[in-house]
Design goal:
single chain, D-Maltodextrin-Binding Protein, domain 2, six-stranded mixed beta sheet, 14 helices, 46% helix, globular, UCP027386_ABC_sbc_TM0202, ABC transporter substrate-binding protein, signal
């Protein structure tokens, strides 16, 4: 009996400790998640950012942060500042820019790819059927040696064109310059991204500009040319969302942001006019009509970065071979790809 009593006495502190631990866990489980003071979502004036605006307006992250705001970046330098200084938590950007920053040791993870084609050759010629039809002509392209220029050059060569002999490339400082050259009839073709494509078509089709401007057409989409010339699906993994800052260090927060973005992205597709009006409210260079056109023009495909990894790597490999700096000199490793696995 004495031995039993001694055993119980030794066991009792362990039981009490276990009960206390279980009680602490239960209390922790019942506690509401921490509400942060502030979350910053940021992106360019482009379709990839439109779902972020709905997240802010709808209040769908009110249980996550007291203040959720959208900060627009207009220039790559602004994006780099946001990244390097950790001033944003969820950032819309081109996928190759995300790879570049990652390879430069910026702590980020690409969560999804939501834009699978955004580049068009806008033309005065309504009969364009392929890039080969541009032989002997001049094309305005913004930003020399950037991703759109590299992609255009690769596809033009695949179409049988010699870039030095068969085409005259007019490099311009910005998409706005390229649009102006089209409107002023200084070139017949320009490579533009949405929503600049829809803005150009809307502007030249409305009074008073329609009186003097040429009739423009949404000529060739580079994602369609990619599919045709590469014998693959007509889509290119060109832009998505990356987690940074406090979201990079908090996987639960990263997944919550991704879920919110996926929901908002579906809303933008299903309610394109309302989403276009919301975009115009936040981005004064856009009209509701042009923003709506841009939403409806893009391929409707959405996937996690991890699911898109093979297509992303094929895209990055092309850029790496032609202009290594566009992806930071190498392919990103597997930790770059976030979201749900296939």
């Amino acid at each position: 009996m004495h031995r039993v009593t001694a055993f119980v006495r030794r066991l009792l502190p362990c039981c009490l400790a276990l009960l206390l631990a279980l009680g602490s866990l239960a209390a922790g489980a019942s506690e509401p998640p921490t509400v942060r003071e502030r979350l910053v979502l940021s992106g360019p004036p482009a379709v990839v950012s439109f779902p972020l605006l709905y997240i802010v307006e709808s209040g769908m992250l009110a249980d996550v942060a007291k203040q959720v705001e959208f900060v627009r970046w207009n220039h790559p330098d602004q994006l780099r500042a946001l990244a390097l200084e950790g001033k944003s938590d969820f950032v819309a950007m081109p996928t190759n820019v995300a790879a570049n920053l990652y390879n430069r040791k910026v702590p980020l993870r690409l969560m999804n790819v939501s834009v699978w084609g955004m580049l068009w050759v806008v033309s005065r010629d309504p009969t364009l059927q392929s890039l080969a039809d541009l032989k002997g002509q001049e094309v305005a392209i913004p930003f020399r040696a950037d991703m759109p220029d590299i992609l255009f050059g690769f596809l033009a060569e695949r179409a049988g064109l010699d870039l030095k002999r068969d085409l005259k490339i007019r490099y311009l400082p910005s998409p706005m310059d390229a649009m102006q050259w089209l409107i002023m009839r200084r070139v017949d073709h320009a490579l533009l991204a949405e929503p600049a494509v829809s803005m150009a078509l809307r502007k030249t089709g409305s009074f008073p500009l329609s009186v003097v401007a040429p009739e423009l057409h949404r000529g060739l989409s580079l994602h369609q040319e990619w599919g045709r010339l590469q014998h693959t699906q007509a889509r290119l993994p060109q832009a998505g969302m990356a987690v940074m800052g406090q979201a990079f260090a908090d996987e639960a927060l990263a997944q919550r942001l991704e879920q919110a973005y996926a929901t908002a992205s579906r809303w933008c597709v299903e309610q394109a006019q309302a989403c276009g009006a919301l975009a115009a409210k936040y981005m004064d260079m856009l009209t509701p009509e042009a923003a709506t056109d841009a939403i409806q023009a893009l391929p409707q495909h959405y996937t996690s970065a991890r699911q898109a990894q093979p297509e992303l790597e094929a895209f990055f490999q092309l850029l790496l071979e032609r202009q290594p700096a566009t992806v930071g000199g190498k392919l990103p490793d597997s930790s770059f790809y976030g979201g749900v696995a296939p």
